[in-house]
């Protein structure tokens, strides 16, 4: 069976692409005002991709010489599948409320996930670039999918212009890598760099710098973070939840793959740079986050800061750090999806309801929602019984293990500062009087179940993290 | 700098030629500004109005669709040239590629992007039976 073996590694991607095409066809033949279970089709595709990823576990399948399905990629694939399923779940209520074109929304979501998965699975820089563009272009459109809102359109335009600019940096970096090593394949690049002493060669330093800019933009690392508060605030809350977790997971995983395999011999050169970027990202993300009055914007800065914590794992570069990145991605994805899910459910068509004041007295009107939001915020702040605590502890222990004491101290201090703005929302929800404002639409049981599931995941990972940590360690052991 | 000398010379000649031409022509060229000479085009139509007008958004759609479906020719040509070497797997891949494009085509068609006639313009108003149809202008800011 030569034929099927050739396609093994891309089966998860094929599942998503097929589901996306099916939704596109269904949308084409949908009559006006006819409602179709398009989200269900998306869920089927996502479940297919997830199942395929589980079956490919430990197989190390490769396709076409440029796509690999090693456990590292499959782990991130599964995180992405979870992100996709919850995005569809929460959007089931908001898509109709906000009059978002459902067919286009789900198609773009699945196509961007095709890009994300390929980006993580790519072992060739050119394929990684193509996947990055597939992911990004779909996400640009999703950011501006509410064409009737000026803010949404503006956010999409800013994101698009800056994103296109950053992509060119990435591509230029690939060009220099090719110029040095004569290949874009990560294995070949790695062996060429390892064989010749490249330290101090200006070409390779330039290439590494350009790649850092390209990845740093997608991860929203300081100083390449300027787009993210605007894009996150302007996009519909469901889309923000999707791109703050999915795009970040894919970008961080690809970042780790390139820098810890092909550019591993250069670690002495790039680690100080990433050290500075990680420290700046954590500090700026938290300090500026304190000053925000919009919850979406605040969570945007919080997500910048979390990008910094992820980079700490990358700088540490040891086995603990690599596994910590994977665990952190899973914990962060669940937590952020839950938080943005609550924001999405509380919005109305006309107003996003994302000011801090809008959360005043939420405990009295929606006690369940307030409880779930509290757990998500505590997890983002890194409180003990939640996934966020274990993830942060794991990342910082990796940094300490590699001797980066100061980075760990900066991380702990900035996460202490960040607790201030997470708790401010909690205080607002429980201890303030509710203003006289239009009450948002009743929350459906389906959406509540989804939120409860994310919170269950957060608490599960916080209390019994060993299984996922073992899986993360097993998946980095095979490739790096 | 072995091998890079040629590139440096080419850049120097390119920049130098342009700079020298502009400099010399501004230095020794005669100046008789007549209205004809000052016009943007010395021959042809006299330009009327500003070129920076708003265009119908349909033009962008057409350009985008053209780009998308033009790519298929870019793939078909090389595939046709090496059809024997690629064999059946190559055939399957090009068919899959086409099916994906067909889905896009169906989508575009069903969404009415290919309807360019005025009947599909929501601003098109049918005149009372005898007499020409009336099209409200300036819908997209076009001037015709």
Layout of strands and helices, then pairs:
The complex is a heterodimer of chains A (480) and B (144).
Chain A: H1 2-7, H2 11-28, H3 38-55, E1 61-63, E2 67-69, H4 71-97, H5 102-121, H6 125-143, H7 150-181, H8 186-195, H9 202-219, H10 227-234, H11 237-262, H12 267-290, H13 295-316, H14 319-346, H15 362-365, H16 367-381, H17 387-401, H18 405-431, H19 445-463, H20 466-477
Antiparallel strand pairs in A: 1-2
Chain B: H1 5-28, H2 35-38, H3 57-81, H4 83-110, E1 124-125, E2 134-135
Antiparallel strand pairs in B: 1-2
Helix pairs in contact in B: 3-4
What does the model show?
Chain A has helices spanning 2-7, 11-28, 38-55, 71-97, 102-121, 125-143, 150-181, 186-195, 202-219, 227-234, 237-262, 267-290, 295-316, 319-346, 362-365, 367-381, 387-401, 405-431, 445-463, 466-477; strands at residues 61-63, 67-69. In chain A, 77% of the residues lie in helices and 1% in strands. Chain A has 20 helices and two strands. Chain B has 144 residues and is an all-alpha fold. Chain B has a two-stranded antiparallel ribbon. In chain B, strand 1 and strand 2 form a beta hairpin. Chain B is flat, with a radius of gyration of 27 Å. Chains A and B meet through helix 2 of A and helix 4 of B.
Key terms for this structure?
heterodimer, A: 480 residues, mainly alpha, two-stranded antiparallel ribbon, 2 strands, 77% helix, B: 144 residues, Methane Monooxygenase Hydroxylase, Chain G, domain 1, flat
Largest beta sheet: strand ordering of chain A: 1-2
Molecular shape of chain B: flat
Task: Report the strand count of chain A.
Answer: 2
Number of strands of chain B: 2
**Most residues in contact: chain pair:** A-B, 9 and 9 residues
Major sheet of chain A, described briefly?
2 strands, antiparallel
What is the average of the pLDDT values of chain A?
Answer: 91
Radius of gyration of chain A: 21 Å
């Amino acid at each position: 069976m030569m034929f099927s073996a050739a396609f093994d590694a891309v089966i998860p991607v094929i599942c998503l692409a097929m589901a996306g095409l099916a939704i596109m066809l269904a949308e084409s033949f949908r009559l006006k005002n006819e409602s179709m279970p398009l989200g269900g089709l998306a869920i089927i595709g996502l479940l297919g991709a997830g199942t395929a990823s589980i079956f490919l576990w430990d197989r190390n399948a490769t396709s076409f010489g440029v796509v690999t399905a090693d456990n590292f990629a499959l782990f991130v694939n599964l995180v992405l599948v979870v992100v996709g399923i919850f995005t569809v779940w929460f959007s089931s209520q908001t898509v109709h409320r906000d009059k978002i074109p459902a067919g286009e929304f789900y198609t773009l979501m699945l196509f961007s996930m095709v890009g994300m998965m390929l980006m993580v699975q790519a072992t060739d820089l050119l394929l990684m670039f193509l996947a990055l563009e597939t992911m990004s272009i779909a996400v640009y459109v999703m950011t501006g999918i509410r064409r009737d809102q000026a803010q949404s359109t503006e956010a999409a335009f800013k994101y698009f212009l800056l994103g296109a600019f950053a992509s060119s940096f990435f591509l230029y970096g690939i060009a220099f890598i090719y110029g040095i090593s004569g290949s874009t394949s990560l294995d070949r690049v790695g062996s060429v760099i390892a064989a010749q002493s490249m330290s101090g060669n200006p070409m390779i330093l330039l290439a590494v710098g350009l790649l850092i800019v390209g990845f740093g933009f997608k991860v929203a690392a300081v100083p390449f973070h300027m787009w993210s508060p605007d894009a996150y605030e302007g996009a519909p809350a469901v889309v923000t939840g999707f791109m703050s977790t999915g795009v970040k997971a894919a970008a961080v995983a690809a970042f780790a793959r390139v820098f810890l395999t092909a550019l591993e011999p250069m670690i002495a050169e790039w680690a100080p740079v990433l050290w500075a970027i990680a420290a700046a990202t954590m500090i700026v993300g938290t300090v500026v986050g304190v000053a925000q009055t919009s919850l979406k914007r605040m969570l945007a800065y919080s997500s910048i800061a979390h990008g910094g914590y992820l980079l700490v794992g990358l700088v540490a570069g040891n086995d603990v750090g690599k596994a910590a990145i994977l665990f952190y991605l899973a914990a962060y994805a669940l937590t952020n999806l839950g938080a943005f899910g609550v924001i999405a459910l509380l919005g109305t068509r006309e107003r996003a309801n994302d000011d801090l004041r809008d959360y005043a007295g939420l405990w009295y009107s929606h006690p369940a929602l307030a409880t779930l939001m509290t757990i998500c915020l505590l997890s983002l702040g890194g409180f003990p019984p939640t996934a966020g605590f274990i993830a942060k502890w794991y990342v910082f222990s990796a940094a300490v293990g590699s001797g980066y004491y100061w980075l760990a101290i900066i991380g702990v201090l900035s996460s202490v500062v960040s607790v201030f703005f997470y708790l401010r929302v909690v205080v607002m929800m429980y201890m303030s009087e509710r203003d006289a404002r239009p009450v948002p639409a009743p929350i459906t049981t389906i959406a509540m179940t989804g939120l409860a599931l994310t919170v269950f995941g957060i608490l599960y990972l916080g209390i019994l993290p060993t299984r996922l940590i073992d899986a993360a360690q097993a998946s980095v052991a095979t490739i790096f | 700098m072995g091998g890079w000398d040629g590139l440096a010379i080419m850049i120097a000649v390119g920049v130098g030629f342009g700079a020298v031409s502009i400099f010399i022509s501004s230095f020794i060229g005669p100046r008789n500004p007549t209205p004809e000479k000052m016009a943007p085009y010395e021959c042809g139509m006299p330009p009327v109005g500003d070129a920076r007008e708003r265009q119908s958004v349909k033009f962008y759609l057409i350009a985008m669709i053209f780009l998308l479906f033009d790519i298929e020719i870019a793939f078909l040509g090389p595939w046709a040239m090496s059809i024997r070497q690629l064999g059946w797997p190559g055939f399957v891949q090009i068919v899959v590629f086409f099916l994906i494009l067909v889905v896009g085509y169906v989508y575009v068609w069903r969404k009415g992007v290919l309807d360019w006639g005025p009947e599909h313009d929501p601003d098109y108003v049918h005149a009372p039976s005898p007499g020409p149809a009336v099209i409200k202008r300036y819908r997209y800011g076009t001037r015709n």
